[in-house]
Q: What sequence folds into this?
C-alpha cells in the first residue's frame, strides 16, 4: 500500500519548522547584550535559515513569505560570498526584525486558518535599500562584488531536482475532496481550507532525552509483564506504581517549555518599539529557565506583549525627559517569572513614569466607566489603577500607531479572567510601575 500524505500534515510540519527557524534566527540577532557584530558563523547560519524558509514556503505556495525570505537571503548571500568576518548588527538587525515580524504574522494567520494576505513590499524595500548600501561599502573598500544571487526568485510552484532513481513505493498525495472552483482563490487557500476540516493539535518539539525516558519506561513495563507470573501481588503493585509515577512526571515535562520562549518575543517587541518611538529601552529578564505548560505560555504571550508595549509607550520617557529627571538615558523593562506553589507569577516592571491615580480616575469618570458623582476617596489606589483595564479606556489624547485606541489592557484583564488568574497594577518605590499576572500552572 502506498504512503499517503495529507495537506493537513504538510501544513503542520511547515508551520512548526518555520516557527522554529524564526526562533533560531531571533536567538542569533539578540544573543548577548554586548554582542554588536554578526560573526561569519552567524551569517552562514542565518543564510541557511532563510534559504530553508524560502524553499518550504515556495513548496506550500505562500509566495509572500517566500519573497520576504528570499530578499533578506540576498543580503546574507553577499555577506557570505564577500567573506566578511564581522559585521555590525546595527542596520541589518532592523531588516531582520522587519522580515521576521512579517513572516511570523503571516504564519500566525495560516495557523488560525486565515488568509496570509500581507504584502512583503515593505520588507523588500528595506532589504533592497540595505543591500545597495552594502554593495556601495564593498566597492569603497575595494572588495570584488560577488555575482548576483544564483537562486531564482520564488514563484507559485517549486521545481524540485529530478530523482535519478525511482521511489521504492508509489506515493499517493491525498488531497481529499476537490474544492469548488473560485476565481478569487489564491495560492495556499486550499491548504488553509484543508487545515480547517478537522480539529488537529499543532506539532511541538520534544527533547530527545525525554523520548529516551519514555522508551526506557516502556522497556520496564515489558519486563514487568514478563515477570508477572512469578511475582507477589504487592511487588507487582509497587513496581507498577513506580513506573506509572515516572511516566506521569515524564509526560508532564514533555508538555512544558521554558518561559524563555515567551520572553524572546518580548525582546523583539522592545527592540522594535525603541526604534519606532526613538527611545533608548533595554529589556532584562529573570527566571527564563522556568518550565511552564506550553498552552499556558502561549496564552500569556499576547497579554505580556500588551503590557510591554504600554511600558515602552506610556512608561519609559524619551531621552531628554529622562535626563532632566536625573535618570539614565536608557530606560529599562524587567521581566521575571517564578512559581509559587501551583501558580505562575509573571512580573513586568519599568523605571519610567508612575501611574497618575487622579488622571486615571478623572478619565474613567469622563468616559462613564464610573458614576459622575463618584469621589476619588471612594476607591483604593489599586482599584483606580485597574480602571485602565476597562474596554475603551485610554489616557492618550491622540491615537498613534502604537496606542491610544483604548485596547490592550482590557485584553490582558480578559485573558487573565479566562485563565482564572489575578492581575495587579501598582507603582514602584522610587519611580516606575509594575504589572503582575498570576495564573494557575495547570
A:
Amino acid at each position: 500500500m502506498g504512503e499517503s500524505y495529507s495537506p493537513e500534515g504538510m501544513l503542520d510540519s511547515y508551520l512548526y519548522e518555520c516557527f522554529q527557524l524564526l526562533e533560531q534566527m531571533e536567538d542569533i540577532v539578540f544573543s548577548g547584550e554586548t554582542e554588536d557584530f554578526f560573526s561569519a558563523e552567524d551569517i552562514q547560519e542565518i543564510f541557511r535559515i532563510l534559504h530553508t524558509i524560502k524553499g518550504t514556503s515556495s513548496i506550500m505556495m505562500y509566495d509572500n513569505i517566500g519573497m520576504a525570505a528570499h530578499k533578506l537571503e540576498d543580503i546574507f548571500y553577499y555577506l557570505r560570498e564577500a567573506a566578511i568576518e564581522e559585521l555590525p548588527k546595527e542596520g541589518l538587525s532592523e531588516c531582520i526584525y522587519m522580515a521576521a515580524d512579517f513572516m511570523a504574522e503571516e504564519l500566525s494567520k495560516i495557523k488560525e486558518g486565515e488568509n496570509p494576505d500581507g504584502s512583503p513590499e515593505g520588507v523588500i524595500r528595506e532589504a533592497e535599500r540595505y543591500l545597495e548600501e552594502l554593495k556601495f561599502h564593498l566597492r569603497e573598500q575595494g572588495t570584488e562584488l560577488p555575482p548576483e544571487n544564483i537562486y531564482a526568485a520564488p514563484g507559485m510552484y517549486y521545481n524540485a531536482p529530478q530523482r535519478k532513481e525511482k521511489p521504492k513505493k508509489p506515493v499517493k498525495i491525498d488531497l481529499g475532496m476537490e474544492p469548488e472552483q473560485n476565481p478569487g482563490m489564491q495560492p495556499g487557500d486550499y491548504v488553509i481550507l484543508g487545515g480547517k476540516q478537522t480539529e488537529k493539535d499543532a506539532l511541538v518539539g520534544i527533547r530527545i532525552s525525554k523520548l529516551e525516558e519514555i522508551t526506557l519506561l516502556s522497556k520496564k513495563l515489558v519486563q514487568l509483564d514478563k515477570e508477572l507470573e512469578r511475582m507477589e501481588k504487592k511487588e507487582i503493585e509497587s513496581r507498577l506504581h513506580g513506573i506509572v509515577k515516572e511516566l506521569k512526571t515524564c509526560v508532564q515535562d514533555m508538555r512544558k517549555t521554558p518561559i524563555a520562549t515567551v520572553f524572546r518575543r518580548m525582546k523583539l517587541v522592545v527592540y522594535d518599539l525603541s526604534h519606532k518611538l526613538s527611545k533608548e529601552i533595554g529589556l532584562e529578564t529573570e527566571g527564563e529557565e522556568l518550565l511552564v505548560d506550553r498552552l499556558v505560555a502561549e496564552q500569556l504571550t499576547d497579554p505580556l506583549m500588551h503590557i510591554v508595549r504600554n511600558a515602552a509607550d506610556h512608561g519609559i520617557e524619551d531621552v531628554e525627559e529622562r535626563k532632566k529627571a536625573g535618570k539614565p538615558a536608557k530606560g529599562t523593562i524587567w521581566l521575571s517569572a517564578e512559581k509559587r506553589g501551583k501558580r505562575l507569577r509573571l512580573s513586568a516592571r519599568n523605571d519610567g513614569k508612575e501611574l497618575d491615580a487622579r488622571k486615571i480616575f478623572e478619565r474613567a469618570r469622563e468616559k462613564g466607566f464610573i458614576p459622575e458623582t463618584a469621589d476619588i476617596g471612594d476607591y483604593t489606589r489599586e482599584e483606580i489603577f485597574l480602571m485602565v483595564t476597562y474596554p475603551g479606556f485610554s489616557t492618550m489624547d491622540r491615537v498613534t500607531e502604537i496606542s491610544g485606541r483604548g485596547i490592550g489592557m482590557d485584553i490582558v484583564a480578559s485573558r487573565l479572567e479566562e485563565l482564572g488568574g489575578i492581575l495587579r497594577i501598582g507603582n514602584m518605590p522610587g519611580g516606575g510601575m509594575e504589572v503582575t499576572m498570576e495564573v494557575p500552572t495547570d
